[in-house]
Amino acid sequence: MPSLRVIASSIFALTLVSSAQAGARAKTNVTDADSALLISAVSDVSSYSSGVSTYPCVYKVNSLETQTTSNGATNYNFGVTGCNAGGEEFVGRCPDLTSFAACGNYKIVVSSESKTSKPKVTSVKKQASK
Question: Looking at the keywords, is Signal present (predicted)?
């Protein structure tokens, strides 16, 4: 019969592993569902955090990293080609890269509390040209 110390050690080890996994970012292949989540979030300006002042349109999703937080939310860090749409009325999907100024590569972070909650745009940052 396992001792109390062995059981406690096992629980502690599992807790450490879970904590380490919760904060780790993982590169992920972009699925149609991921792209739909991004477009849905950036198209709804009411879902933007108060600190976000860039209103993007997305032409192409280039990459995705996901991170699960300790409270169970998922942060999606999208690398996209897009433009600063310049205002709320043109957010969402870009028809091309010539309609707007400030086109280039952006990092857009979308947070989702659960599969049923409304995704929230928490960060939009233009990436420096290489």
Answer: yes
Residue type for position 3 = S
Residues in contact with 15: Cβ distance below 8 Å, sequence separation at least 6, in sequence order: none
The pLDDT value recorded for residue 17 is 40
Per the CB < 8 A criterion, the answer to whether 123 and 107 are in contact is: yes
User: In order of start, what are the domains of the chain with their CATH numbers?
Assistant: 25-126 (3.10.450)
Residues 42 and 56: beta-carbon distance below 8 Å: yes
State mean pLDDT over 95-121: 87
Q: Give per-residue pLDDT as tens, 67-83.
A: 998 888 899 999 999 99
